[in-house]
Fold these 2 entries.
Entry 1:
Amino acid sequence: MTQPPDSTEAAEEERQQVEEVEEAEEAKHGKGTWKHAAFHVATTIATPAAYAPLPFALASLGWPLGVSSLVGATLATWYSSLLIASLWKWDGKKHVTYRHLAQSVFGFWGYWSIAFFQQVASIGNNIAIQIAAGSSLKAVYKYYHKDGDLTLQHFIIFFGVFELFLSQLPDIHSLRWVNALCTFSTIGFAATTIGVTIYNGKKIDRKSISYGLDGSSSSKVFRAFNALGTIAFSFGDAMLPEIQNTVREPAKKNVYKGVSAAYGIIVLSYWQLAFTGYWAFGSQVEPYILSSLTVPQWTIVMANIFAVIQISGCFQIYCRPTYAYFEERLLSNETATSRSSLRNKLVRLVCTSMYMLLITLVAAAMPFFGDFVAICGAIGFTPLDFVFPAMAYLKARRRRHQNTKMYLSLLLLNFAIVVWFSAVAVFGCIGAVKFIVEDVKTYKFFHDM
């Protein structure tokens, strides 16, 4: 007579199934190398929409303050990225999102603070770069159809439809080859734009170029505030824990290498474009550097194509926190093995469609690129990329390093970063809001810029 299956055997079988699912999830989220991390970080930070406004930021600050602000922000954000990477499994647990890392360090308020700032950074960044992508697509269109009837709003919509298609890919790791292409497009954009900027600068009568700060004292101050927000936006990387989750062990070492490699690209592209753009056009440089270039036309078209390719990958990186937030709640009862069901795909399609509709509508209605860049940098990226990393590292590591010279040095450095960039966030927000109000008064909604 056969015996009924032992309940312990059933429990063991269930436990093995759970372990298999967990191992599958672990494998899915930890396949990337340091090169993949570099691609993701470079795609996230070094976008044409991020460094194209840097010459305009320098023009709003002048040479001494502009150069020191740019160099200081580069070093500070590289250091902050290393701090965030060092907190990987700091308490023995794996925190796969920025929100959960913040919760592990600061508790309830840390989770919701980062969730808020991430959404501001995500939405604000994607509005700004969708405007930039639309502007680049329009420039290419006008090169071939000078009398064409399509407006900036049409191209913003076209780009939004394409991003909706990419949004159906499941996670950041599935974008690795897209982001590899975007990284090479970043290099192509930077090289092309820098070369064409120098070419245009030599064609201009250098005696006609002014580097003075124009306007009244109050307007100079507000432009300087706006410029600080723009520089903060240019180093936006509010996704490092999510990127680190896609990297294989040793995750810390791989992300250290990836971040440093990405910043090598950033220094070569950011600094040269910022300095050459300001040198070439002086205080008359446009907020989006490509708008200042005139000849040769074919190279400007090529730079715009590089810009669209790169922006397409960056957009995906920044929309993922929003998608993850809704999926965590709508699909919370689903097991890992059923995440590919038709129902879940429909949920993703609905969520991504609503997100893309919102972003596209705002970008088309208020295509003020420079203003969105500044306010997004001030409110979104400054807390995430400068203030929180410094505070989190000190709190998480204080027991290990307390009363040592190293800890005291880090305390002083991190405190200086927190104070300075908190001030940048406030001043940058003030400047950006002022210019948005002025632009809304000057232009109608859905204006074809």
Entry 2:
Amino acid sequence: MDTPQIINNATSSNRVIDLSHHLSDEASIRVANPLKDIMRVISECPVTDLITMANGDPHHSLYPFQQIMYEVPSIQDTSDPVTSWNNSGRTQIFHSYRDQECALPICKAFQYSRAAGLVQCKDALTDFTNLIFAPPNHHVMLTFGNSDGLTKVFRIFGQKGDHFLTDEFSYPGITNCPLPYGVKWVGVKMDSGGIIPEELEKVLIRWDQAKLGRRPRLLYLVPVGQNPTGSTLSVDRRKKIYAIAQTWDLIIVEDDPYYFLRYDVPQTNCASADPDEFIENFRSTLIPTFLSMDVDGRVLRLDTFSKVLAPGMRLGWITSNKLFHLKLGEYTDSSTQPPHAFGQMFVTEMLSEHGWKIEGFCRWLRSLRLEYQNRLDFLLDVFQREVEPTGYASVNRPEAGMFVWIEVFFEKHPRFVRERCSGGSPVVARTNTECLLKELFERLMNIQGVAFVPASMFTIPENALWVESDGHVPLGDRTRFLRATFAGTEDIIEKGMIRLGKGLREFFQE
């Protein structure tokens, strides 16, 4: 067993440590885009009447936009703007102008810009991040949403032969990203509370570098409303995981699209007319993040508007230390470029004095959380009425997110098979659970007309070299779940649960 290397090369006055050894070879040798660099130098020139003929973008007088109007829900009904919006359609309007005063003028928004995003938008999101998360020594960079951000993060840390750590059930749209350049995933055992810190440490202790290559140095997590399980890491688990990251020198990638959709939290004084008081009350309902406890600079946090405004906005942001911020910027400046102007203009105006402001956005987030909690409660009520009496399935109550994780009791099926274990690999399935799951998924969809996502879509392949053989239940035998969303209307939810109940009865009583 190798002894962990405790990284502690920081001083008491500056806890940010040198983490440059985590960068991939590609990130280490990548250089800044020289044209972007010289444009930065020009933009910082102190000459007040500087005439620049160095730029390569069209003049703003030729942009075919005079103004853009945004008609959005009114947050004047401070108690519940989402319900008010759905019931009465009350709206408010703010604008982006080319030639009139606004937070981010069209003449500036549609110019070429640097990787971190337009200054006005980046500053607005930095203010929001500092207010909500209070991260020490971190910088904000805009992305085209978290999928784009994660693709870049994985690229600057991973290379062929590396292994990344994550939950044993994870969203494949993200875990697929680093596979083409030779990175493999190690799934860490979970329970209803998410990834288990002790299991994480077991993997690191057992790691055989002679057979597997260097020990994993990156941990990817969705800590609130994890997709697909709906689990949320407690504060205690977060502290344990961060301590493990410090001991074993891990980078933590905190992907948190469902952070503001956390349910069953104490209600605060939503009628407060004082903006600062309301924001402070709202903050008190939020769970501490890995970013907020990051004294070393080893956390990269990804936030997005996809789940709280609209997924098609394709706008999010990464908060990281200065070195990782610069490396992500070098990659962006020579690849995707910063996000589109439309989204940046909208967000800037929304958070400005002309729009909702940060207080209004927090009121929207609080109200949205209550709306989704109502939909979750409705699904659970219908499940209890239509599915639970079958005796063939149960459902968790997630703390956050948009999904419930429905467990199916395949051992009650007449064709369930369990092989007796007598040696062999500890990761080879000993039941036909996966086959029955696939059959159930197809029958529910093709006969009952209701679709869920089977757990097999989310599994991270196991390897006998990093699991304990004694008492280990292969992941294939634990792949007995269906993921269901409660983001739809009550009509969709009710019909779906009725069809699930009927489908389970027919499947198990064949």
